[in-house]
Amino acid sequence: MARLENLISGLEVIETSGDLDKEIKGVQYDSRKIEPGYLFVCIPGFKVDGHDYVLPAVGAGAIALLVEKPVAGTQGVTVVRVKDTRKALPIVASNFYGAPSRQLRLIGVTGTNGKTTTTHLITSVLEEAGYQVGILGTLYARWRGKQESMAHTTPESVDLERFIRRVVDEGGDYTVMEVSSHALDLGRVDCLDFDAAVFTNLTQDHLDYHRTMDDYREAKLKLFRRLKNKDGHFAVINRDDPSWTVFRDATPSRVVTYGITDEAAVRATEVRVEPEGSCFTLKWPEGDLRLSLNLSGWFNVSNALAAAAFALKEGISPEVIKRGLEKVSGIPGRFETVKCGQDFTVIVDYAHTPDGLENILKTARAIAKKRIITVFGCGGDRDRGKRPLMGKIAAECSDFSIITSDNPRSEDPLAIIEDIVTGVKKVPNSRYTVIADRRVAIGQAINMAQAEDMVIIAGKGHETYQLLKDEVLPFDDREVAKEFIKERLQSVQ
Ligand SMILES: CC(=O)N[C@H]1[C@@H](OP(=O)(O)OP(=O)(O)OC[C@H]2O[C@@H](n3ccc(=O)[nH]c3=O)[C@H](O)[C@@H]2O)O[C@H](CO)[C@@H](O)[C@@H]1O[C@H](C)C(=O)N[C@@H](C)C(=O)N[C@H](CCC(=O)O)C(=O)O
Ligand SMILES: Nc1ncnc2c1ncn2[C@@H]1O[C@H](COP(=O)(O)OP(=O)(O)OP(=O)(O)O)[C@@H](O)[C@H]1O
Ligand SMILES: N[C@H](CCC[C@H](N)C(=O)O)C(=O)O
Ligand SMILES: [Mg+2]
Q1: Domain 99-327 falls in which CATH fold?
Q2: Which atom of ligand 3 is nearest to the CA of 205?
Q3: pLDDT, tens digit, 9 for 90 and up, residues 431-461
Q4: 103 C-alpha to center of ligand 2: Å?
Q5: What is the DSSP string of 295-325?
Q6: Which ligand is the nearest neighbour of the Cα of 60?
């Protein structure tokens, strides 16, 4: 509960009508989630305009509106007008929840790939050090073992503030969160008080939204620009990434670098990548330590270095860091092995960018005993430029590719596949087939696998749905793969 007058403090109000001395029970940007006593913030969006939903919002009990244009039919409802409601939302959200991010340490992880993995590694280390930690991102918002699914990797400011408030009220020390470029660009995190920021990497993605790679990078840089030059504030930057200097130069805060390169402050040497995990020597200016991760792949060594660099700078002891990192047994949908007693390997992974796919397939090549069969597609209503690039990478790095569908959304699945095939065809003698139905595609891969082959099912990882037109169809790569493996094992008995 908060008084409306206090809620709008910090906003540049153009005009108000109605009583400002009202108790507001909640702040909401979606009319479908309004409850009696709420403030409805009307946002003109990319698809629809929130101002068009004033009537249902008032019908559901909204007693105040924050608008940027005149609205009708609002008798008895207080209306506050500002220039930009999207920019106003995080301010109102922070006022409503009392800026909880100032009452704990807030760690933001950004980058094209590795955010979910790195937030989990950091969380494990912090928990090992005895701290109470909330974690939020693509998989869930999790606090004290309770998981809540969120609409986005980085949800709207109101949802973020609500979660952090709960963590603070229940004694949390940290919140570790993924920060997407969309969230940075759309101001979802504008009022959060980050203490440290981690940059994993920058490669092509989301060029449907950010028009150029420079725009995309600029969005990510926002997180680093706002850190301060004061004790406790620092940036953790991947020295192996070509953009690292831009991130270093953008932040006024202290910087710690990590990477495979000798120049990084926190680095890995003697790296060994194996099917079930990876080992490396963690080196930092004052010492070194041998580590054995349960996560396979070079890229996960990089993610572990990010977490270690953060934790060392945070003052956590190297032994605790080692235990915390080694404890992580796997992250749902990230290089997740599907085992049903078959004599070939099946891996489900969330690689959905060219860089992600290349990394996963190169790791697969390093550990595979025989052929690699790759099943993948590309998301509809998303960066079209990724499609031929991913097609080319799959053809180059696999022995056989099955091009299929991955959340076609409003697009024609076959048109997406055609874009991918353009890239596949660039590779001479590429061996591939097109099977638009993902279930059939997975079945085909499982049935053609021979002993010691490796089937990689990429793109959907932990997802439990397929988005087709306006439908959300239940679909889980891991479950579908299991069904086909079991069927095949039974048929030979
Ligand atoms: C580009 C983008 O991020 N758009 C998000 C944004 O949309 P928008 O503001 O344009 O909303 P809109 O759908 O046009 O609606 C306008 C307003 O009307 C409201 N409305 C709408 C319908 C209704 O009946 N009543 C109502 O009040 C909406 O709640 C909204 O406030 O705000 C909406 C409400 O929160 C989001 O659902 C929507 O996410 C879209 C669907 C989306 O797909 N976003 C993805 C790309 C995204 O954000 N991804 C990132 C990165 C992922 C990663 O790589 O890690 C993420 O953080 O998840
Ligand atoms: N450091 C990395 N560099 C390159 N690829 C990576 C890295 N870490 C993970 N990947 C690949 O990217 C996939 C997604 O990893 P993860 O979920 O950690 O990234 P994310 O940044 O959270 O993704 P999203 O943007 O969808 O939330 C993994 O399944 C793996 O294939
Ligand atoms: N965070 C990414 C996830 C993509 C996952 C892939 N399965 C797809 O749907 O394209 C996005 O929203 O673009
Ligand atoms: Mg993620």
Answers
A1: UDP-N-acetylmuramoyl-L-alanine:D-glutamate ligase (3.40.1190)
A2: 13
A3: 999 999 999 999 999 999 999 999 999 999 9
A4: 30
A5: S-SHHHHHHHHHHHHHHHHTT--HHHHHHHH
A6: 1
